[in-house]
Amino acid sequence: MQAYFAKVKLRVEHVETLRKELEFEPWANRMGASAKTKMELRARLRDAPDDVRAFLTPRAAGKKLFFTLTEAIIIGRKA
Q1: What are the tens digits of pLDDT across the range 35-74?
Q2: DSSP secondary-structure letter at 2?
Q3: DSSP secondary structure string, 4-70?
Q4: Taking the CB of residue 42, how many other CB atoms lie within 10 A of it?
Q5: Tens-digit pLDDT profile for residues 16-43
Q6: Distance from CA of residue 64 to its chain's centroid?
Q7: In angstroms, how far is the first alpha carbon of the chain from the final one?
Q8: Which CATH architecture has domain 2-78?
Q9: What is the pTM of this model?
């Protein structure tokens, strides 16, 4: 990501990453996912390789499914 900033002549001043747990169903609804797509995504989370599971940390709580997204904040300033 920092290479993109350098390409447009921005100096990276701060980088911060945040992990945010989301409930699957409301998230998928906001994304406009169809019932078929939601079913496929649930299966992909359930059957994901270990490294993907470690990154997304899917978990079930009763009938609800949760996963974690990683977001980044990058502050750049013109050099």
Answers
A1: 999 999 999 999 999 999 999 999 999 999 999 999 999 9
A2: H
A3: HHHHTTEEEEEEEEEEEEEEHHHHHHHTT--HHHHHHHHHHHHT--HHHHHHH--EEETTEEEEEEE
A4: 16
A5: 999 999 999 999 999 999 999 999 999 9
A6: 18
A7: 17
A8: 3-Layer(aba) Sandwich (3.40)
A9: 0.77
